[in-house]
Fold Glutamine synthetase.
Amino acid sequence: MPGVSDAGPQSDESATDRRIEELRAKGVEIVAGSITDPAGVTRAKYIPLRRLGDFQRSGMGVSPSWSVFCVDTGIAFTPTIGVSGDLRIRIDPNDAAVIDDGIAWAPGNLTDQAGDPAPLCLRSLLQAAENAAAARGLTVRVGAELECTMLAPDGSPASTEPWSPYGIRTSLDRSAFLVDLAATAERAGLRVEQIHTEYGHDQLEVSLAPTTPVAAADAVILTRIVLGRAAARHGLRISFAPVAFEGGAGNGAHLHLSLADEQGPLLSGGDGPYGIRPAGGAAIAGVIDTLPDLIGVYAGSALSALRLKPGNWAGAAACWGLENREAAVRFIAATAGSPHGANAELKLIDPSANPYLAAAAFLNSALRGIDRQLELPAEIPENPSQSAGTPPPLPTDQRAAIEATEKSAVAAELLTPEVVEALVAVRRYELNTFGDRSPAEITQALRLAWSC
Ligand code: GLU
Ligand code: MG
């Protein structure tokens, strides 16, 4: 595991002892290790601080069925995932961050008892994608935006007064919460770039600095946790539902991707549009090419279709364009206004998607485009729904989207057949359970499903 020194068990033990002392000095009593499952739900086990080393060495036991737990209490058993067997969550003590009074948290890998990654360890899947990029001589950076909706403790709207999008009033009305959020995030080691109240009523956004892919997905989960804890201290709850209230704005979970080789960034400094180099164009083409197969991954929940529509800035069209907020891929060029350089933002991802899985799909589809030297499609610079060069429509029917992912050879190639099987099982369960309910009923049922 990353973070383990190769100097032998004794030095591991003293490193763990030191870590225990550091965490004890911060008041930590218990440590959580979590995994985020194919339904996008984060689930955890806790140990008393003195057992920190065991959380790394032997891990904490979980049933294989954790990977097919659903957004409610259902379990979507598959031919390969039943009631028998046992897996482990293993953490790296160096990752432990304080998330609340007395509690530290670390992201877990899902492993077998011996310590090898389980086929449904989505964090390891993203690590493998990161390694595949490195094997091609590419460094990868992923940045994340987290949109969410503030709620009252009973799950009703947090405020009833009129809302002003990005309003200084609507944000200052929550000043104590925002200050607490920023301070807690800082203490937890997060690199928050920006916080703002968003367009939708009671909507909030936190964006994170780009980093390596697994670290970026870990940071998404840590930010969700920190948001949830800080909100609770101020009489609020946080919804990560793609749409929290019928007719309300959608919550996106946009990811930004940039790639570089030894000559520099792939998305700037070249001869293509906005300086895009051929491999960078192929990467964007790869992402667009696989969208119809991967909507079930990026926006696959029973609530996702309520958001993924033209006019919502949700990127519901399979195209790219410079700063185009209606395109699935919004291209951000290298300018003085973009301190982290050029990148491709995949806007259609929503927070019901597992961030490790979404990032793996995004990165692997970009690598596939590079391997196949796909040609960058023509840019759609205007609103795609009013564009002459209309891009192919994305499936709007959620059952069709899940079926497309299930039948897709590309999805199986990029994400493994085991992962696709589990994802399809939990998403189909959701559709069968909630799919026929009205928007008001389904938003109410799933409003807190992805909260941490
Ligand atoms: N809330 C929009 C979404 O659902 C995104 C708005 C924005 O571009 O920030 O993705
Ligand atoms: Mg936003």
Notes: The longest helix spans residues 213-232. The domain at 15-118 is CATH 3.10.20.70 (Ubiquitin-like (UB roll)). Residues 147, 249-252, 307, 312-314, 325, 347 surround glutamic acid (ligand 1) (CB under 6 Å).
